[in-house]
Design brief:
Blueprint (H helix, E strand, L loop, with lengths): L1 H13 L3 H52 L2 E8 L6 E8 L34 E3 L10 E6 L5 E4 L15 E6 L10 E5 L5 E4 L14
Length: about 210
């Protein structure tokens, strides 16, 4: 009798019946079914919102490298075949008399080789490349350039945009795909002749301080 009471007490204190276990598993499965898609959507939205920072960092770094090295710099955007977004690469160039650094002349650094005349020689600046593989694909976030087809910006040693280079990029716009409308805001990055990139909202009227410059 005493043994039976003791065993029953143990079951009441710490035992789990088969029905209780099945209920727990069912509830856990429902939570996973609801939570995993919601978490995936939240992560995708967060990545899309942060995409502008990827490009903003590129433009700001290109300008900073020009000033830091007292040299010409450029940022070149190229299509990423995996995400449909744009990779970017920053190069620098040291002009010499009669050979300016622009789209047609001058020898630019690469990711493996410093530019000629780099004061640090073989230990000098090597081009910086960043892949857009981790960004949301173009079925979530749609990039577009202004003017159409422009993919590069050249900076002078003072950090100003070189206006002598034609078809320079002045704005990069990121629009949510139709199925993401309302979840991801439209955002654009504007680059003025002063070389400073800034975020703006291309959907607002010009009188709004948050609107993109004309």
């Amino acid at each position: 009798m005493f043994h039976q009471l003791t065993a029953g007490a143990r079951r009441g204190q710490g035992g789990v019946t088969l029905i209780e276990l099945l209920i727990t598993i069912t509830i856990f499965g429902i939570m996973l079914a609801i939570g995993i898609p919601a978490m995936g959507g939240w992560m995708m939205t967060s990545k899309a919102r942060a995409a502008s920072e990827f490009y903003l960092d590129g433009f700001a770094t290109a300008r900073r490298q020009a000033v830091l090295h007292n040299a010409a710099s450029r940022i070149v955007l190229s299509a990423n075949p995996n995400s449909g977004q744009f990779d970017w690469q920053i190069d620098i160039c040291y002009p010499v008399p009669g050979t300016p650094c622009n789209a047609n002349t001058g020898t630019w650094s690469t990711t493996t080789t410093p530019a000629p005349n780099d004061p640090q020689g073989a230990a000098g600046f090597r081009s910086v490349f960043r892949s857009a593989d981790a960004l949301p694909d173009s079925e979530v976030l749609i990039p577009s350039m202004a003017p159409v087809g422009a993919t590069q910006i050249y900076y002078t040693a003072l950090g100003w945009v070189d206006p002598s280079v034609p078809a320079r990029l002045t704005q990069l716009r990121l629009d949510p795909a139709p199925r993401m409308a309302g979840k991801i805001p439209v955002v654009a990055l504007s680059i003025t002749l002063a070389g400073m990139p800034s975020k703006c909202d291309p959907t607002l009227a010009a009188t709004d301080s948050r609107a993109c410059p004309p």
